[in-house]
Fold these 2 entries.
Entry 1:
Amino acid sequence: MTDTGQRTDWASDAMQHRIARRYAADARFKWYGLGAIFFAMAVLVLLLGTIIVTGIPGFTQTQVRLQVSLDPEQFGGSLKGKTPDEVDTAIAAADFAGMIRTGLQSLFPDVTQRRDVRDLTDLVSSGARQKLAQIVREDPGIVGSTVEVWLPTSDDVHTIVNGSMDRDVVESDRRLNDKQIGWLEAMEKADAIRGVLSSDFFTGGDSREPEMAGVWGSVVGSFWTLLVTLAVAFPLGVLAAVYLEEFAPKSRWSDLIEVNINNLAAVPSIVFGLLGLAVYLNVMHLPRSAPIVGGLTLALMTMPVIIIAARAALKAVPPSIRAGATGLGASKVQVTFHHVLPLAMPGILTGVIIGMAHALGETAPLLMIGMVAFIVDIPGGITDAATVLPVQIYLWADSPERAFVEKTSAAIMVLLTFLILMNAVAVLLRKRFERKW
Amino acid sequence: MAEADVEARIRVSTEDAKLKFQTRGVHVYYGDKEAIKGVSLDIYNNEVTALIGPSGCGKSTYLRCLNRMNDTVDSARVTGSILLDGTDIYDKKVDVVQLRARVGMVFQKPNPFPKSIFENIAYGPRIHGLASKKSEYDAIVETSLKKAGLWNEVSDRLDEPGTSLSGGQQQRLCIARAIAVSPEVILMDEPCSALDPIATARVEELIDELRENYAIVIVTHSMQQAARVSQKTAFFHLGDIVEHGNTEQIFTNPREERTRDYITGRFG
């Protein structure tokens, strides 16, 4: 603006041009923003879409209907009235594989050659034996009768049936040969093949057989690991933040500590894994592959995040609240624990949950401390060998069997579900307790 | 309350000494900066002492010396003597918690705790252990709110958060909160600066009522307010007291040129 006294001519061409350009810049910027969001959403949809499309079959199990005659001779006579121990012994001795083979042969009586019989039995999962044993264990009274059971098929049948493998390619490019395809199609015609939601996937541990492999073992492993992480990182992180924010005198030292905490939060997680390996395993001799070691390692990694979030939350509590309480004669500890900390808690918890969500998705440091092992059993505590969800995903992604591809995506969906739940809780907390002073 | 304290109170009342605070040569430094340069002032019971002066003249800093709120500022350093009933409050033996219970404070911006109205009042007595039974707390809350003239407005909603009240009510709640620990002195740091004229009038009325039982020190930017509520006035300028004395004298017949200029609005 000039102050020569001249009136600005708002209607002049130059001025109109400027105004038009300004509006154009506004509009352009809006479109850039929309474009960025659209791009991000498109990538997200593509990512989730691929995972979901690939992963859905991973939640299902293909089963075959068989008439299995439970020959009492196999169990040393009828199991009626036997003690549970005797039943277990009898079941352990029984040849379930043979019973399943007989059941299959009864469907295809003309299969007699040893090699064909082997091909035929290969259609059924090797885990079917345990399934059958389980059925007998639950009701020993059925021994002696012929029962109709649905048993899991092998992963090769599963991938053919759900269409992720093509059954029309040349025989040498298939995992199933022409004869096996023929038997399978015969069974499909007889409605003896079905796909169901896999209970093994949700309740089982890891397995070499994709159709028997489940995420529950790694979910429980993740739970124990995060429990240790939370138990260590939450109190230590909050105490450190409270001290630094409320008690520590501002000095060169507190600045140095602050810089270092921010640095720690940015250290690559694999470095924490190496530290965990060196300290917890080699010096403290804690059990390898155990959630306690994984949890302690992740706690190291999560603590700086919690400290930073907690300090920000404490800083956001207005000083007038501190002054009010101090003016009434409250001591420093009373001011902190009666007023400041409760007011900062929602913010702190939000930070903690986000930190825990990070820890839940962390893989690299856990590889260093041996949580990458093949573990079939569901861990029963923090000292049992265990693996965690992201490591399970890594293990399955590395497996050669085609059916593990869908198991991998299914496990990713399980992990994402937990992450979304945790982040949703964090957002809700933030919304619910937004500034109330 | 400690026995010595009770004795001190009895002594004060029997001697009928109205002198509450005696401050001599008070200096306050924030790091290298000298915020107050040797202030000497007496504060009396049953009187309102107003501290006036332009922004940054040190009146709030001086006020915060009287209950050692400056302790919470890392860089602050206080020298000189501040005697409360003859005891130096900066003496090492003085318990600062007890001091702040005896010298209550009301702040510029109403700062009720984000808790219920009841809890706001009961908090002080609770941390000092002034009551033990629910009924005792009920009594303290009721008396304090009555003294602060808030009882009729909030008696039926003591469970509601203190922050739900209006600005004027919040400030009176803060006054009630300060009264609840039965202090001897109440410090007020521009208590009406965030309030509308009606709420201000209500608080000023309250200050006048409270004078009967307490010594009150009030920092204010409003000349009219100082003239209305106070009996003594001290005019601060650049960290020094330029003039102090009876309010009437200061406002009608100031001795100093600068005081006259300030109260007539020529500067500040």
Entry 2:
Amino acid sequence: MASEIETIRDWVIKGKRKEAVEETRKALAAGADPGAIMKDGLIAAMSIVGQKFSSGEFFLPHMMIAARAMTEVVEVIKPLLVGEAAQTKGKAVIGTVAGDFHDIGKNIVKMMMEGAGYEVVDLGVDVGVDKFVDAVRKEAPDFLLMSALITLTMESTRRTIDALIAAGLRAGVKVGVGGAPLTQKFANEIGADFYGADAYDCVQACNRLVH
Amino acid sequence: MTPRERVLTALKRGQPDQVPWIENDVEEEIQIALMDGRTDFTPGEFCRALGMDAFGYHFPTGHTATAGQAMQTSGTASAKEAWYHPKRVTFDFIPPWIADMGTDPKTGRTFVKHGLLTSRDSLKLFDEFLPDPDHPARYDQIAEWLAKYREDYAVFARIRLGSASTFESMGLDVFSLMIFDDPDLVKEIHRRFSEWSARVVQHLNKMDFDFIWANDDHADNKAPWVNMEMYEEFMKPSQMLVAKEIRKPWIFHSDGNLFPILDGLLTLGMNAVHPVQPAAMDINDLKARYGDRVCIVGNIDLDYTLTRGTPEETEAEVKDRIEKVGKGGGYMISSANSITDYCKVENVRAMSRAVKKYGKYA
């Protein structure tokens, strides 16, 4: 069974969605554990995809087709996941900050976080401080992930963290920031818990920090 | 030397009398701030006030300025007419995105909500969105402005090679999937944008522009969106349709880290590359590896220095780039990637002073 799951993993890495789904159905029919497919097939695949992206072997299209293949396999196994296997690793709220309408970076992070087993609540773009705070209050996520792609908008990340403190919510959530003009230095300055240089870096940080 | 001679010398990788300062764009609100609230200045007055050597882009001269990206339009029938008959002084020949556009109510900036070129059926949108590249009106109007305003500055026309248009009009996510699902569709979309720009360039060659600036983002800070193999298959053939028509010196613009595909890009034959974002590319590395092949334009940081830094930091950065990258010529100083409305006015003035102070070649 391990080799069948490895095959699923490899098809997902290659972005071969039809082959990945077919192999998944065969594996399930042969008695494979859906939780094992999720963990050792899909999450393992996206981890490898993230490493390859970080190292410069994979580029955006490779990530996108791998994520799509993973999503289609998830649709097959999701109804069969029970108990602990059905639980996600954690929950993240994500959004691009107020006044910023870039979404590709946020979408890649969302994709990689879901691929890593997290539930992601996507607030979209142009997300104001109040909307982030309301979402943290409502969703009680493990992580708040904010993306800012231009200097004009990055100060909104600071204002959001300040608002979380004022609302008494800061202690309950880990805050990560990322985007072109952001740096580790800026993240430290505003009191964020981490800075993600790319999507895989963000996932690694979340994996380290999740309870 | 005149500013024009200075720029043309640098574009040939020569050493002019001083390091030229050119900008791909200066947003209109900050133009007005730098001109102490005036809106009636000419491009030449603006260049003289700061010590810049070239202009292109657009100016608020005589009309109310709006914040935001003048290059992007909403793609309606009235937008086509607006393209044929520009009301504000401009030197741009940028095609509209074929996309659903939004406008930020607070700043007036336009943005792409989502691309509309997502299927073969959507190809019909090219006729709806793209103006006729042979319609004479825009060329005639801009030729008048060129004659009226050029003085002895280098004047550039901005175009696209077709790649940015493809990415934005498809959406990077759809593009990424379609290069596997329907590669011929991607090639067709890029080809149509490039053929449009190639027609535009044929007209620009007959006009009195000194150089052309092709704006086509290919990358983010980490890497290009495609690898060399994908670039060679999906983008370069169509980009070459435009490049081979260009009869003037030209600058290639893309944000982000271009190193993984730079060897492929350089076969297009550009004279210079811009903006060399500090967070994405090491300009000293670029100069060492490619300085004998291409003029380098850029590298004054927009993420921190010009927008959040101090005049002292700005001066230090300008001095550093001039001394290290300007050595021997083949360099033009510029922000990475434009003077935006959110740059600090005092830092832009500091850049101006520093270029004058440190920019002369011995």
